[in-house]
């Protein structure tokens, strides 16, 4: 139980506000990397995933976890104790989703994509990746991006560009994506167009 109690922020008010601003800023400026105040890793839950869940989840927000995380008692105890958020098995029932790797992540279309009336009810996916740079270059365009930008995270789903194009076609519906690694976060909102670099 000690690890569950210790897993939160050391300075909850200040650190949670700082991390919240980092997440919002990352989504407002797609493809930029922001420092994220992190808690400790909890079982299979990386420090970054734990931090984002602490910030975004509460007893009114259902969470989907990949099989590895959902099968980890320490992770479930941590989320229950610190957030009270219900953990759901169906991706389509989740407000937030946490995945420890792309191989553990279902297709984006399986999550809640929102409705035309309530597009904000779609799932925000938080994906732990090995690194936010060093991978193949992708080009980003859209709101919050001057001209075009470049991103090169490591560990995206193999068919990421195709899945993302399908997701973008649903706008204003569609999932939003947060990538997390090395104490940092990158936001990719549904409004962002992403194509392969040349």
TrEMBL record:
Species this protein is from: Devosia limi DSM 17137
Top-rank lineage group of the source organism: Bacteria
A Pfam family of this chain: PhnH
One record GO biological process: organic phosphonate metabolic process
Cross-referenced Gene3D superfamilies: Bacterial phosphonate metabolism protein PhnH (3.40.50.11310)
Protein name per Swiss-Prot or TrEMBL: Alpha-D-ribose 1-methylphosphonate 5-triphosphate synthase subunit PhnH
């Amino acid at each position: 139980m000690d690890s569950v109690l210790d897993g939160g922020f050391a300075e909850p008010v200040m650190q949670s506000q700082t991390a919240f601003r980092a997440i919002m800023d990352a989504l407002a400026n797609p493809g930029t990397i922001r420092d994220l105040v992190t808690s400790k890793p909890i079982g299979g839950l990386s420090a970054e995933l734990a931090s984002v869940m602490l910030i975004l989840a509460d007893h009114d927000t259902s969470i989907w976890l990949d099989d590895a995380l959902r099968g980890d008692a320490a992770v479930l105890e941590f989320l229950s104790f610190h957030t009270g958020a219900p953990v759901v098995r169906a991706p389509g029932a989740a407000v937030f989703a946490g995945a420890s790797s792309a191989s553990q992540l279902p297709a984006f279309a399986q999550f809640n994509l929102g409705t035309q009336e309530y597009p904000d009810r779609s799932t925000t996916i938080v994906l732990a990746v090995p690194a936010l740079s060093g991978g193949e270059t992708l080009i980003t365009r859209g709101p919050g991006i001057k001209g075009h930008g470049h991103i090169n995270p490591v560990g995206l789903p193999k068919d990421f560009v195709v899945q993302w194009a399908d997701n973008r076609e649903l706008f204003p519906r569609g999932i939003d994506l947060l990538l997390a690694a090395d104490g940092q976060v990158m936001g990719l909102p549904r409004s962002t167009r992403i194509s392969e670099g040349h």
